[in-house]
Amino acid sequence: MKISRQPTPVTIKIDQKHLENVKCFKYLGSLLTDDGRCTCEIKSRIAMAKAAFSKKKNLFTSKLDLNLRKKLVKCYIWSIALYGAETWTLRAVDQKHLESFEMWCWRRMEKISWTDYVRNEEMLIRVSEQRNILHEIRKRKANWIGHVLRRNCLLKEAIEGKIDGRIEVTRRRGRRRKKMLDDLGDRRGYCHLKEKALDRIKWRNCFGRDCGPVVLTDY
Predict the structure, then answer these.
(1) In this predicted structure, what is the pLDDT of residue 82?
(2) Among residues 108, 146, 169, 217, which one has the fewest Cβ atoms lying within 10 Å of its Cβ?
(3) 34 with 2: CB under 8 angstroms?
(4) Which residues pair with residue 14 across a beta bridge?
(5) For the chain, how are helix, strand and coil distributed in percent, rounded to 5?
């Protein structure tokens, strides 16, 4: 699979056999696509989580205590949907898919159909919840990135762009493409983010549950 802006074809031979060019494939449980985006992976994860919910629908919609059912949904269903979320680069459309999935879980858990015309705000009040899924992703990403920045490893060098090689970069029209670290929202730059990550306690306090709202930005 080739990930590039240039349409130049790539031909690779092994034992005089051409390797097939593909637009997507699964690696370690995650769906990789040739556009370098996470949209297909997020949609795939959401579909898997919904299928898992449907299999245990009787449990999640039973007469168990509400708080217990919410914990079960977050433990079993969200864990499937958010597998590998630490590496996702979320665009506005991806964030909307995830928030829609979050509301889908609460509506199905309370047996409320979309034809009942119950607003999302009212639904959140019924289950005593806030919109948490984007905060959870941001917290997971911050914990993982902080761990990477405190170590000297290949992944850290890849993030910092220190891998040897030459890439021809051509400026395209429009806003620049969103990067993985942009979700952490430190406007003072990567160096300040790296310095902050060295203090584990300060880093976790900064990117805890009360780290502020996630702003929808389209890139």
Answers:
(1) 92
(2) 169
(3) yes
(4) 17
(5) 50, 5, 45
The angle, 0 to 180 degrees and rounded to 10, between the axes of the packed helices 92-109 and 133-149 is 130
Q: Where are the alpha helices (DSSP H) in 132-189?
A: 133-149, 154-160
pLDDT digits (tens, 9 = 90+) for 116-132: 888 989 999 999 999 98
- In this prediction, the residues of the chain whose per-residue pLDDT falls under 50 are 209-219
Domain boundaries, the chain: 39-130, 134-163+181-209
Give CA–CA dist 19/95, Å, rounded.
Answer: 35
Look-up: residue for tokens 């593909």? Answer: 22
Q: Please state the pTM of the whole predicted model.
A: 0.75
Q: What distance lies between CA 208 and its chain's CA centroid?
A: 17
Interval 134-145: pLDDT, tens: 988 888 887 877
Residues 6+ apart with CB under 8 A from 66: 127, 128
Q: Residues 29, 75, 209, CA angle at the centre, nearest 5°?
A: 100
DSSP states of 69-123 as a string? HHHHIIIIIHHHHTTTGGG----HHHHHHHHHHHHHHHHHHTT--GGG---HHHH
CB 133 within 8 A of CB 101: yes
Residue 38 and residue 90: Cα distance in Å, rounded? 7
pLDDT of residue 219: 36
Q: Is the dihedral of CA 67, 70, 74, 80 positive or negative?
A: positive
